[in-house]
Amino acid sequence: MKKNITIIAFFLLITLLVCPVFSGEVKAYEVFILCYHHIVEGDPEGNSETSLANFKKQMEFLQENDFSVLSLGEFLKHHQEGSFPEKSVLLTFDDGYLSFFSKAYPVLLEFEFPAVVFPIVSHMPGLQRTILFSEKMSFNNIRYMNNMSGLIDVGSHTYNLHHYTENQTPAILQQPGESKEKYECRIKQDLVTSRNLLALQTDQKIIALAWPYGVTTDKTKDLAQETGFKLLFELGNVPFTPEDSLQAIPRFLVDTIEFADFVDFF
How much is the pTM? Predict the structure, then answer.
């Protein structure tokens, strides 16, 4: 009898060591947020370009290695719950290049990966007032992708703050000789305009903003929140954790990096 009890106790101990009891705690995994711009055929010629071949290879890597590619809504939900799924990624695309619609989107559709686009609203067809070196997406392109797949979320990259002024400083910053009142009014008016136009033309709730060049200040963050933006994206080669603030979300700048360097992000 004692021998049987000893044997049972031994196997119970082995079971506990191999299959530990669930503690009720969920590991708070981090999420890697990637930032792209222009997708091109052939080799990139500019710093903000990614070759289509390299982009496809990167998406294949994410799929083959079982990464969880999140939508914007899933990203916000997991942050509120205090835990991201293991190996989480959020894909973002700045400036609103037409190449996202013609080249990146078909790849994303193939893998069923969601993504967030951040167009510069004043650069979109029908609104642009400056000569652009590359074509930009239209509101119709965004509506088409949203209606066909539901994979594409939209955020703002401001209405017209994505440039350097004659003082050689980012337009998002207060300019020499500009009063505090005029500066705050200028920024707030731009953010409200971009958010309202995107909401009207895409029928999406616009809660995300990506700062031009990743430049921001405490004041611009306050103004963005006052105008209804909940998620504020910057640049920074560090993953985002559930403990981090939604008002300072870092993104890895991908663009021209080699595939091996892309893998090293993770």
Answer: 0.88
